[in-house]
Structures are given as structure tokens and as C-alpha cells.
Write a structure and sequence with these properties.
single chain; alpha+beta; Hypothetical Protein Pfu-838710-001; 8-stranded antiparallel sheet; 4 helices; 8 strands; globular
Length: 153
């Protein structure tokens, strides 16, 4: 089951109370396999059809480097925690997806999700857009990414 999460877009990290970032370097091998470097850790993740991680394991740097050679897409982003609300994390995208700042709010139950009032600094909700998940983002062309981003900013 997918987590109860709403996703929003913002245009910058200015004036937000954030944790130090963790750098994610993700490579999509196919729809069910991605490898990533998270900080100094190398991981392999198996995803199901709903983009939920069903298996995750730490791997060696050499296995990571070998697997990433077969990737169809690369996503580099920094992940921050919003220190004023532990349910909120923010992803700042770099390189090909520069300009995307995605806010993710995770809820413990449906009632909490339904009653949630977004923070005043949050922009439009993008939960059901191709910008909501890295897997969907990885399949956008540069042109379609910029077109999608413009819809919400």
C-alpha cells in the first residue's frame, strides 16, 4: 500500500527551517529496479507496480557503479526535513530537473490527510502529476518536464 502523502510545489527554500540536506543520486535501471547513492551509502531497491519499495539492500560501490551503467535516467536531489513539522520533507532537484522543489507531507491515517491544511508557503498540490514521483519524473523528456513545471509555478 502506498503511503498517505500529499505533494506540493514551491519555488525556493528561502526562509524555511530545514535540516542539513542528504544528497540522493538515483539511477533507474527499469520500472522495477533503481540504485542510489544516499549520502555515503549505496543501495539497490526493487519497486512494485505502485512504485512502492518491496526490497531494499545495501550494496557495494562497485556493484552500484556497474548497475548505474545500464540506467535510462538519473535523478540528483537534496532531501531536507522541515524542522517545524516532522511530517514534511522537501526535495530540491538538481541538474536535469533543476527548478523543481517538491514538498511531501506524510500522514498516519486518512482522517489526518483529509483534515490537513497546507502551510501558507506551499504552492499548488502536485500529488497526481508526473512531478510527484521520481519514477514518473524520470520518464519525462526535458521539454515535457519544463512544460509540466510551468503548469504549477
Amino acid at each position: 500500500m502506498r503511503k498517505l502523502t500529499k505533494r506540493y510545489i514551491i519555488s525556493s527554500l528561502d526562509n524555511l527551517n530545514l535540516s542539513p540536506p542528504i544528497r540522493y543520486e538515483r539511477y533507474y535501471i527499469n520500472d522495477n529496479l533503481r540504485v542510489q547513492k544516499k549520502g555515503n551509502t549505496f543501495q539497490k531497491e526493487i519497486l512494485n507496480i505502485n512504485n512502492t519499495i518491496i526490497e531494499k539492500e545495501n550494496i557495494s560501490e562497485s556493484e552500484f557503479l556497474s548497475l548505474k551503467e545500464n540506467a535510462y535516467a538519473k535523478i540528483i536531489r537534496d532531501s531536507y526535513l522541515y524542522l517545524d513539522d516532522k511530517r514534511i520533507s522537501i526535495k530540491k532537484y538538481l541538474e536535469d530537473y533543476r527548478g523543481l522543489y517538491r514538498v511531501e507531507v506524510t500522514f498516519t491515517n486518512k482522517e489526518e490527510e483529509n483534515s490537513y491544511q497546507k502551510e501558507t508557503w506551499m504552492g499548488q498540490e502536485i500529488t497526481n502529476s508526473p512531478l510527484a514521483f521520481d519514477k514518473d519524473l524520470s520518464k519525462l523528456t526535458k521539454e515535457s518536464f519544463h512544460k509540466e513545471l510551468k503548469k504549477y509555478l
